[in-house]
Fold each of these.
Amino acid sequence: MERFTCGYCGAHELQTLFATQTRAGENFQLALCPNCQTQTLVPQPTDAQLAHAYDDSYYGEKEEKFGGWVERVLDGFRNGRARKIARLLPSGGTVLDIGCGNGRFLQSLIQRGFIGHGIELPGGSADRAARVPGLNLKVGSLAPDDFAPNSLNAVTLWHVYEHLREPKRTLEIISQILKPGGFLVLSLPNIKSWQAQWFKGDWFHLDPPRHLFFQGPDCLQAHVTALGFDCKEVNFFSLEQNPFGFQQSLINRYASERDFLYELLKGNQSALAQPAIRRWFHRLLGLLTTAPAIALSILEALAGRGGTMELVFQKRPAALE
Ligand SMILES: [Zn+2]
């Protein structure tokens, strides 16, 4: 037991599990909190480390985070999310997307007649979101008085929860501003997945130092239901996230540079400046591992151990709290 602080409950006696390293070569460990079962990246990254990890290359150096065809494929996934959320909402309902990125998901909802609010940290993505017609954008993070109590129909966090410095505080605010019967939808890496347990420190979705803490499905459900929600759905399959998690983790295990294929797909200049043979070798590895990775992702999802997970929670009516 070492004196690290749990990223969720603030307990101080954590059990270290395994080591990991960032692309910049900084060393961290993952540590388990015996009090709340959250796994936290320790020591907690400094503001300077995070500022470096979220520099322009994270959000993409070009007009979009990813280049050309990758961005088109991602648009397809964003539209799928918007269709799913639209089915949960009354017509004209109000949605808050925390960590809204470039705002394309909200744009798709706004075009369907919903009211869209987004929150995003300063940077390239927020600049793009600010140009989406009809999107109400806050640059910064969620504060208790941003929205009236019981005012929103849905709050979404697409691969954002694990980045939060104060996850418990954020969930508490969300539980206040959602209407009774409103929905909280989260997607996040699954630390209890096959790929997480096989690849440990090399796991792509560990993404140090940006992912600050991890909760498995049971752990997350326990914490969110304790705040007045019922869990309505858990989905362990994501074609967008899970096969690539297997592929990049496997390559990470043997390559000298973490997440190199991912950086190539983002079109980052430092990756593109590497020798052509290196770039094509990683692309070839990506191509060759695609089919087996999809098959494994289907199997781990069927076993309830998918590499990422999406959970739908509904706020209980006030009378039942
Ligand atoms: Zn804890």
Note: The pocket of zinc ion is lined by residues 6, 8-9, 11, 33, 35-36, 38 (CB under 6 Å).
Amino acid sequence: MTAYEIYDQIMKDAKDPETGEYVDDKLIEAYYYSDAVEGCIAYIQRIFGCDSAMAREVFAIYKEKQGPSLLTPAQAAANNAAAEAARSAQQNKPKCPTCGSTNIKSISALNCGVSVAVLGIFSKKINKSFECRNCGYTW
Ligand SMILES: [Zn+2]
């Protein structure tokens, strides 16, 4: 087998015959943790019965082909932080400017359309996006 053929098998979801784990998952680990690379080389040797030089070549191909599509640990952390910020922004619900209640509902585009049709163009709900369930204020 050539290094490319082994790489191809890894990408076709080759599994560790002992544990049933995907070889690909193990390689992703080694991509993130440089001290895991040697273990990974030995792993490829064990799974595919090749020598160390061949296993290194396989890993080099993996890194070259898969590396750009994988996030570095720093990028993954930045993504997590962004997701976390989005989550907490959502928890920071808007408050009623009059009574301070967070028991508000957003007036959907559909509701706005209904209020235009039913109440006419002078509806005070037009261009408002929230309504307080506590005091009924809209803004
Ligand atoms: Zn209110």
Note: Strands lie at 104-106, 130-132.
